[in-house]
Amino acid sequence: MSSLPRSRQAGPAWQGQQRYLAVRAYSLALAAPLSPEDQCVQSMPDASPTKWHLAHTTWFFETVILQPHLPGYAVFDPHFHYLFNSYYEALGPRHPRPLRGLLTRPALQEVLAYRQHVDAAMQSLLQDAGPGLWAQLAGALMLGLQHEQQHQELMLTDILHALSCNPLLPAYRPEDEPAVRRAGEPDPIRWVEHPGGLAQVGGETAAEGFVFDNETPRHTVLLHPHKLAHRLVSNAEYAAFIADGGYERPELWLSDGWAMVQREGWRCPLYWLRHDDPRLQGRSPGPGWHVYGLDGVQPLRPEQPVCHLSFYEAAAYAEWAGARLPTEFEWEAAFGAPGLAGMSGQVWQWTRSSYDPYPGFRPLPGIAAEYNGKFMVGQMVLRGSSLATPPGHFRPSYRNFFPPAARWQFSGLRLARDA
């Protein structure tokens, strides 16, 4: 039981402290099924080791909040500033991203001790924060928590990719864990029409509690009449695309996508396995496709949304299906409309929108100016959320973004058509 007076326990600083503890504990829970060896591996330059995620999110609170605001704070280890900075040029040089897997030291136990050190200091700071200090801390604290939640999802996507490189194809966790959510039985696609016209998109901090700067400012867009599929594209539907030569027909693909298919030898979504894949020997896989996921190797479930697609694959499938991908504004304007299913919590949904600034966009001040704005080139927007998105980290205005070739995220698609 907290020693604070009851009036302080109900205040915003106390609530922020409780939220901080909950988010930080969830990161450790995600890492708990992994061995120290698992947490050190980096399977590709775009991914990071679990241990690095645990340290980097801690570095954020130490650098952005504790050092400026807690008098007498003792930095845990001055070397960590170099090791665990990600891309903040204003904060100086950093360990190269593609080489994070070489950080066998500091050991995992030292990283966990780093988290404990920072958590204790954060609790002290928040517990004693009066209204004036809380006004200075609130924005940075919420940004840090949302930042850690982004890394919680990356912890799952990155470790899944790393474990997929192991010929044993080990499961991250048992199949019956509640975080592995199931889709409902699909029915034939129905089309939900939108008349078009002017629509308000984007988020506002006062209305939503928190939004990233890339979700602002809220503004008006003009939509043409269109319709969205009432559900996501399923595994069975995507398997039909493959069977119809989808990966062998250049007329379905954008030029860059077709070049990627030829160069990388793509023939199916990432983590799909044919029954004769040598890694399935001894597993009695049976005929048909199998899928590797957080619950290990499982027979392909035809009714579930197809997952781990690049933008190029999503666009090719839409072309094959006589449809297109929705724009991010069509998606947001439709959120909450009757008849639409799977708008969040299953797979991120590729849109046909490039990741560009909204009219009047200005990045956050200070260090956070580098958080989103400088990545607004060469990337595509995804909307919704996925089975890996942590609780409380979704809102209709959320803009996820990745390069069009990215496949290791929990990404799928919903079809759209012009009305």
Largest sheet: 4 strands, mixed
- Structural shape: globular
Q: What oligomeric state do these chains adopt?
A: single chain
SS content category: alpha+beta
Helix content: 25-40%
Strand content: 5-15%
Would you identify the regions where 5 or more consecutive residues have pLDDT less than 50? 177-184
Number of contiguous helices: 11
Spatial separation of the terminal alpha carbons: 59 Å
Question: Taking Cα atoms only, what radius of gyration do you get, to the nearest Å?
Answer: 22 Å
Strand order of the largest sheet: 10-9-8-11
Number of β-strand runs: 12
The string of secondary-structure elements, in order, is HHHHHHEEHEEHHEEEHHEEEEE
